[in-house]
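Supplementary Methods, section 5.1.

A reviewer requested that the exact input to the structure prediction be made available. We therefore reproduce it here, unchanged from the version used in the analyses.
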Amino acid sequence: MLTLNNLSPAKGSRRNKKRVARGPGSGRGKTATRGHKGARSRSGYSRNPGFEGGQMPLHRRLPKRGFTNLFKKEYAIVSLSDLESFESGATVDRTALLEAGFIRETDRFVKVLANGEINTAITLDVDKVSKGARTKIEAAGGSVKE
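The structure derived from this sequence is encoded token-by-token as follows.
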């Protein structure tokens, strides 16, 4: 019967810990499995991340491509169909779009595109408006300020 006092691991499932640097009789004495000389034989050795044993590391083998334009302007896109939710005669600017949830706080520039239709006359005051959106807004009786 198996009880707590006679538990033991299965035969061959457990091995003794490798005891290095315990003399020549152990078979792992002298250099303690570190080999002769070289960085890895020394105490305090630690290699830098990305080191590949002297081979040219991957981050240096890959080519550099392109560049990042620091002055690039990224626009938050708003569709005309979104502007339909505003009341007639309302002035739609950045703060109004932010309160309505069409743009985020981090969006610096806003552009309105002519996706969908608009029937309410609004005054639009944003950074950019496409030609199609401008004609649709003016056809609905609204105006555009940039």
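The longest helix spans residues 131-139. These observations are discussed further in the main text.
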